[in-house]
């Protein structure tokens, strides 16, 4: 009886315990499910679908990949607002950040009369002191305001050549803005004249580094043209402008189209300038050119508001009267027309006196014909020697009587016109001054026409036959860097620069070759070139390297003595490291002992790893990003 009671009581307690365990399990599950659902709903309400929620008893686990650190923190805050924050366990991770893009290195260089300002972002490795020193040297000590920031990222390979090019360009442009990036240099500047603009544009374009784009916007003030001159001719050579001036771009286009309508085919430079006598200049030119075309041949010369129309000998007088009368009625009131129809020549007339001056391509000047007096003969010689090289003037002209009163003036005027040419001739007669020849300046023909029209007057006859040739142009004919390198190589192909055995002393034959190379470099101008010294493999490597460097420096010094600008030349010694022939033979060793001139070109652009991984990797290797960078050098600016 007692045993059964005990068993009954024990069974009752056991059953109750089991029921409690089951009830507790259901309670825990209910709490877990409730917490999980509540946190999940709160996260979904805020769009945090990336987060996974799980529970284990009273603990709430957050997992998943957060897009950012801020999103991760927000998810923990949301979960902590639903359940006790102490119950929330963070098992989330943050999505790996994209590789950091390197900054865009760029400099704005502003230069005016007050100095230079530098604004922008540069690599931390840039030698700022050297950059400022180079700018100061290029601009003759102009004050510099350095407002640059620096970033510790590797610079692209073209950054240094682009910056070096910008610094050199700055020396040519006292009023300029130069924008520099690794890929592009943009130059905006103001110069004093159209001629200087052309020279600067050609100079800047030929020195542009490879792999660097160049944008030029060089402006020049409109010149003051006094007198405002235009001359148009129709003769056996066709229609052409000897001189062309316009007050606006629109007027220039109208004038050139008027010439094109009557047969102008050659490309013509028409100067846009100030000083026009009336805004109706283009209209007057159009009307006069059209009238000249109706006559068939002749010339028309504008000098401010005075117009001189000269018909060709033999023109029908009735046609001449009709055309001139109609033109007078169509011209604006401010213009005065002087139209001339030359009479037919008289076969019984005496021989016409003349004075002829000839300028040869070598600079020799020959003066022949007639002058008015012995004193005038001396004056002509002195004037010619002042305009040309004194030792190159030869006079064979004789003194003659009966010459026109203005003969001496016409002779001196002809010589002045001839001085605008590279070579040619001028013929002076009582009726006409004729100038012909070749020039290296596009504006020479217009300058001669302006000179003759101003001094002779629009009614006087003169003829101009001037041809522009690019090879005579001291700017346009400049060789490219590659052409300069090829010319020097051609000189050394015939005979190379030699040295005394085992020394850096240039021998006599080498000195003669250096004379030729110096002449080439003077023509080439400011081009970055390397003078590389090379030896054969005999002797110790260290001694050969030093000897090659000394020889390269000796060549540089000799060029400097020959008045070659050497600021863009660099001497380097390569010793025996770059043979071009077999050092096992005497012939090969002789070939390897050489001096080479090479244009310095920018290094090819290489892919640079600049992401976060790269920076962290450098930090692990060098302790910090800055520590992993190469130390700055002279070449890094």
Largest sheet, strands/sense/barrel:
7 strands, mixed
Low-confidence stretches: 604-637
**What is the 3D form?**
elongated
Strand content: 15-25%
Number of helices: 17
CATH architecture of the largest domain: 3-Layer(aba) Sandwich
- Count of domain modules: 5
From the alpha carbons, calculate the radius of gyration and give it in angstroms: 43 Å
- Alpha-beta content class: alpha/beta
N-to-C CA distance: 109 Å
- Quick one: CATH class of the largest domain? Alpha Beta
Strand count: 26
Helix content: 25-40%
At CATH level 3, the topology of the largest domain is: hypothetical protein tt1634
- Average pLDDT metric: 84
Set down the secondary structure blueprint.
Elements: H1 2-45, E1 52-56, E2 59-66, H2 69-82, E3 88-94, E4 106-112, E5 115-123, H3 128-138, E6 144-151, H4 159-170, E7 176-181, E8 184-190, H5 194-206, E9 213-219, E10 229-235, E11 238-243, E12 245-246, H6 249-261, E13 271-272, H7 281-295, E14 298-303, E15 306-311, H8 317-330, E16 336-340, E17 355-359, E18 365-371, H9 374-387, E19 393-395, E20 398-399, H10 407-418, E21 423-428, E22 432-439, H11 444-456, E23 461-468, H12 481-494, H13 508-524, E24 529-534, H14 541-561, E25 569-575, H15 586-592, E26 594-599, H16 612-622, H17 625-628
Parallel strand pairs: 2-3, 5-6, 8-9, 12-13, 15-16, 18-19, 18-20, 22-23, 24-25
Antiparallel strand pairs: 1-2, 4-5, 4-7, 7-8, 10-11, 10-14, 14-15, 17-18, 17-21, 21-22, 24-26
Helix pairs in contact: 1-2, 6-7, 7-8, 9-10, 10-11, 12-13
């Amino acid at each position: 009886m007692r045993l059964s009671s005990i068993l009954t009581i024990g069974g009752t307690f056991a059953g109750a315990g089991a029921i409690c365990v089951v009830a507790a399990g259901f309670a825990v599950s209910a709490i877990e499910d409730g917490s999980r659902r509540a946190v999940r709903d709160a996260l979904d309400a805020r769009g945090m679908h990336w987060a996974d929620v799980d529970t284990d008893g009273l603990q709430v686990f957050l997992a998943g990949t957060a897009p950012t650190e801020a999103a991760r923190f927000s998810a923990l805050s949301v979960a902590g607002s639903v359940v006790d924050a102490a119950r929330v366990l963070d098992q989330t991770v943050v999505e790996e950040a994209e590789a950091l893009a390197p900054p865009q290195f760029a400099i704005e260089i502003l230069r005016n009369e007050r100095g230079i300002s530098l604004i922008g972002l540069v690599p931390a490795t840039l030698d700022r002191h050297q950059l400022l020193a180079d700018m100061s040297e290029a601009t003759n000590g102009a004050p510099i305001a350095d407002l640059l920031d620096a970033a510790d990222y590797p610079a692209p390979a073209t950054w240094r050549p682009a910056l070096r090019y910008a610094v050199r360009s700055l020396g040519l442009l006292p009023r300029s803005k130069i924008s520099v990036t690794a890929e592009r240099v943009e130059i905006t500047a103001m110069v004093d004249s159209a001629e200087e603009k052309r020279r600067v544009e050609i100079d800047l374009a030929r020195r542009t580094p490879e792999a660097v784009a160049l944008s030029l916007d060089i402006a020049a003030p409109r010149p003051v043209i006094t007198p405002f001159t235009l001359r148009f001719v129709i003769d056996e050579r066709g229609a052409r402008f000897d001189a062309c001036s316009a007050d606006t771009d629109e007027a220039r286009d109208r004038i050139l189209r008027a010439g094109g309508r009557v047969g102008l085919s050659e490309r013509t430079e028409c100067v846009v300038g100030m000083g026009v006598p009336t805004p109706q200049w283009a209209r007057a030119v159009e009307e006069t050119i059209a009238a000249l075309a109706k006559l068939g041949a002749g010339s028309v010369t504008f000098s401010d508001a005075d117009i001189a129309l000269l018909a060709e000998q033999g023109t029908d007088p009735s046609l001449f009267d009709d055309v001139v009368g109609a033109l007078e009625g169509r011209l604006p009131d401010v213009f005065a027309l002087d139209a001339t129809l030359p009479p037919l020549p008289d076969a019984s007339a005496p021989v016409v006196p003349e004075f002829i001056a000839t300028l040869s391509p070598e600079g020799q000047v020959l003066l022949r014909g007639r002058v008015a007096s012995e004193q005038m003969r001396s004056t002509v010689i002195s004037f010619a020697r002042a305009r040309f090289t004194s030792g190159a003037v030869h006079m064979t002209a004789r003194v003659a009587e009966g010459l026109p009163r203005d003969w001496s003036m016409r002779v001196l005027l002809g010589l002045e016109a001839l001085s605008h040419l590279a070579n040619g001739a001028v013929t002076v007669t009582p009726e006409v001054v004729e100038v012909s020849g070749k020039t290296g300046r596009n504006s020479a023909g217009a300058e001669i026409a302006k000179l003759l029209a101003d001094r002779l007057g629009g009614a006087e006859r003169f003829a101009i036959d001037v041809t522009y040739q690019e090879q005579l142009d001291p700017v346009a004919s400049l060789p490219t860097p590659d052409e300069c390198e090829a010319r020097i190589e051609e000189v050394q192909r015939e005979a190379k620069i030699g040295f005394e055995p085992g020394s850096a002393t240039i021998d006599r034959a080498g000195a003669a070759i250096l004379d030729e190379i110096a002449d080439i470099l003077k023509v080439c101008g400011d081009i970055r070139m390397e003078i590389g010294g090379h030896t054969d493999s005999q002797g110790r490597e260290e001694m050969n390297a030093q000897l090659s460097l000394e020889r390269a420096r000796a060549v540089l010094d000799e060029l400097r003595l020959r008045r070659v600008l050497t600021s863009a030349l660099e001497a380097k010694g390569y010793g025996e490291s770059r043979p071009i022939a077999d050092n096992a033979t005497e012939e090969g060793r002789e070939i390897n002992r050489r001096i080479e001139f090479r244009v310095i070109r920018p290094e090819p652009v290489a892919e640079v790893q600049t992401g976060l991984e790269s920076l962290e990797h450098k930090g692990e290797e060098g302790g910090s990003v800055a520590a992993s960078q190469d130390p700055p050098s002279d070449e890094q600016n």
